[in-house]
Amino acid sequence: MTSRWGAGALWMMLSVLFAEMLGALLIGPTGIAPGRVLSALFQPGGHGVISEIVWQIRLPRVIGAALVGAALGLAGAIMQALLRNPLADPYLIGTSSGASLGATVAQIAAPALALMPLGAFLGAAGAVLVASAATRARGAGSVTIVLVGYALSVILGAVSSLLLTFNHSGLVAIYFWFLGGLGNVGWPQAALLAAVLALGFVLSLVYRRELDALALGEREAQYFGVDVGRTRLVLLLLAGLVTAVAVSAAGLIGFVGLVAPHVARRVGGAQHGRTLVLSVVFGGAFLVLADTVARSLPVGEIPVGIVTAILGGPFFIWLLLRRRGALL
Amino acid sequence: MSIVAEHVHFGYGESEVLHGVSLAVDQPEILALCGPNGAGKSTFLHLLGGLRRPTAGAVFLDGRPLAQVRPATRAARVAVVAQSLETAFDVTVEDLVALGRLHRLPLRDRLLLQPLHGEDRSAVEGALDELGLAPLRGRVIRELSGGERARALIAAALAQGADHMLLDEPTAHLDPAYRQEILEILRRLAAQGKRILIVLHDLTLAGLYADRVALLARGRLCALGAVDEVLREDVLRDVFRSPLRVLHHPEGGRPVVLPAPPGEDAPWRA
Known about the structure:
The structure holds 2 protein chains of 2 kinds.
Chain A: H1 7-26, H2 34-41, H3 49-82, H4 95-109, H5 116-135, H6 142-166, H7 171-179, H8 187-206, H9 208-216, H10 218-223, H11 228-250, H12 256-268, H13 272-295, H14 304-322
Helix pairs in contact in A: 1-3, 1-13, 2-3, 3-8, 3-9, 3-11, 3-12, 3-13, 4-5, 4-6, 4-7, 5-6, 5-11, 8-11, 12-13, 13-14
Chain B: E1 3-12, E2 15-25, E3 30-34, H1 41-48, E4 56-61, E5 64-65, H2 71-77, E6 78-81, H3 93-98, H4 107-111, H5 118-130, H6 146-159, E7 164-168, H7 176-191, E8 195-199, H8 203-209, E9 212-217, E10 220-226, H9 227-230, H10 233-240, E11 244-248, E12 255-259
Parallel strand pairs in B: 3-8, 3-9, 6-7, 7-8
Antiparallel strand pairs in B: 1-2, 1-4, 4-5, 9-10, 11-12
Helix pairs in contact in B: 5-6
């Protein structure tokens, strides 16, 4: 039987998240004394370099990290339920390669305009739409969706490689963008993320029992009166939209969307009312921690995707090894 | 209250599985649907449950074409019980049974994230009690025995509050004691007014527990009637193309179906 800490765990995770965010605000390459950071923080309209650093650089980045992590956690929880697959992540249905292709095209076509975020969003959204269209095909089950997503990833990846073969100029920028980073998150990105995340969070909570039913299987969901085709489409588009916005803001950050739902279920059980909330909070906390580590290493800042992979990878392996039958 | 199939046909691509089957599930009773492997029993059950659409003919729920009934409305009237359930996550017995109420969850409760309450709560509790699952409510489905799992699936269907229950071989993987337990439960539910259709491979169990038996073979309904009329050697020989023996139970006289002795040939088997 699963241990269930329920509400207690939620408050604990939330406290950890806020503590991390506060801690992350105090850390930075300029080495400002904590007291001065805090006093700048509580004077929003203040002037001077410190206020500028706290309000325009550190705060949006920390909030951005929490929002991106939360978005990936939410999308991961939805995808794992929809695909009945504990190894699913937000990128599974071609989102990541769609985003990569979009970013690549944007960078090659107009390197000066810094359109990679927009390109990534359009690419990811396009891939989600194609994968969603596949779910409307007659009798398409979750395995079909995974396979269509896989095929789509391969195709889009090949197109990206083809473009890069003939245009070496964008390689470095694209390479670092692939690895993800929160350095470009300012207030506008954070606001957009917050709005989309709020929409996705509320709607998926409204559908939380449908997610419970779909996680049992499409047939079972049908038995219980779920309009499987429509519900699955809505949730897939929702997860795709949330992922596309996150990818556009911060590039491809792995493992957060995979790991968060697992932690959520370990702590709160399999009901999606809890899984969604805990995934969001854990995803946020995980990425704030990873981003803080990524930018405070003695060697200088490294892409946050490397940190989440190094922290999340061992967890993933442990997960695979402790998995008992019954799955897939 | 009835589910009626009228001349339903169904096919996968080129090959047709059902060739015009008509059957009504309209009485508080156990109606057993039996027949050889590949006869189309499960397919027919899915058509009755509205999970597939017939390629020709129609299924009616209380006189209304089932194809026009919304999934949630259908789930309020017809509960379908699968043979088994494999869960990817640690779903508990109570989680599963609570899903039986999904079809009637109002928007207000969804938005307010209300836990189940009132009538819904009592339907779930009632179903858990009816199937003796209250002590197992917090157990994870995949850690249950086959018999407990079958009971949990029936409890979820019961929580739906539907008048019709369609069960697809719920006893297939169970030992004799569990099989009998499941059928005892169904008999009790039929006595409470449920209209039950159950796909059964075990003809003896059908003979002991069903009120009526329908025999489906090669996509057609070959026989339908009271147990004694249908479970007869001549009827079964035609349907199963195999020499079966029908005896009568020493207690009550219901038909008991046995295989022929070893070595007896079945020249008519295709």
